[in-house]
Design brief:
alpha+beta, Beta-Lactamase, 2 domains
Length: about 230
């Protein structure tokens, strides 16, 4: 007697429990691969998922495994389609006899068509542009905002403030100015402490930065080219 035959009743009971647990959208199929491929299904639950019944044949994938074209002992979470166009998420486990020959398979086919429709609907509602991420800092105290920008300007330069050259400090201050940091009351004091510079030096840097931008804007509008 084939070793597999003694497990048929047990496996049939197992898929009954699984089908009851996972519901009618999940099909569980047991194939006996010891005889002809024309009739392999000896137990099936929720066969309406693929439209099959006991006595029907296996799929093309099982045939490839028997032929030796595919050598894995399992295939997990692959996507298939039914004849009616439903989308399934499928997994298959191939069982072996004591000589290592495949004698059976357990297949699970879950209809995910409706879930995909819901996913598409939710995606259209969320409508997130993955390239439009904005680094927004929500705080209750403006000092936290200052600390945030202090850290960001050092990331921008790639150095700690204490290690920056004069030119790098100017670039960091330019970054802070572009973010509106100096609109915050007493922010200049914190910036001077961070870069170890005087207020006079900070104001000189800011004047230099803003004059550069004003000049660039005039050049962009052609004001400097007027005769």
């Amino acid at each position: 007697m084939d070793e597999f035959a003694s497990y048929k009743d047990i496996l049939s009971s197992v898929i009954q429990v699984l089908a009851s647990h996972f519901g009618e959208t999940s099909e569980f199929v047991l194939h006996d691969l010891t005889n002809g491929y024309e009739s392999t299904i000896f137990a099936i639950e929720n066969g309406h998922v693929t439209g099959r019944k006991v006595g029907d044949c296996g799929s093309n994938l099982g045939l490839e495994v028997l032929r030796g074209t595919v050598t894995e002992d399992r295939r997990l979470n692959y996507i298939t389609k039914t004849k009616t166009g439903r989308t399934l998420r499928s997994s298959t486990l191939y069982l072996h006899d004591e000589n290592g020959r495949i004698n059976a398979s357990l297949c699970v086919n879950t209809d995910i068509t409706d879930y995909l429709s819901v996913e598409n609907m939710m995606q259209s509602l969320i409508n997130i542009d993955k390239d439009s991420s904005v680094n927004e800092m929500f705080v209750s105290d403006v000092s936290e905002l200052l600390e945030f920008f202090m850290g960001e300007c050092q990331k921008e330069i790639g150095k700690a403030a204490a290690d920056m050259t004069r030119e790098e400090k100017i670039k960091a201050i330019e970054y802070l100015d572009s973010k509106g940091v100096f609109l915050i009351s007493k922010s200049g004091i914190k910036v001077c402490e961070l870069f170890n510079i005087s207020k006079f030096t900070l104001y000189n840097y800011l004047e230099m930065i803003r004059n550069k931008h004003e000049s660039a804007e005039r050049n962009g509008t052609g004001e400097d080219n007027k005769e």
